[in-house]
Amino acid sequence: MTPTLLALSLLALTVPQQAAPEADHPVIEKKTATTGGVTVHFLTIPWGPNTFAAMEHGGDSFYAKRTWPFARMETKVPVTLEATTLPPGNYALVFHPNTADNKGMSLEVRKILVEEFLVPGNVMTKTPEGETVSRSAAAFETVAETVPALALDLQAGGRGASLVIRYGDRKLAKELSF
Question: What is the pTM of this model?
Answer without folding.
Answer: 0.84
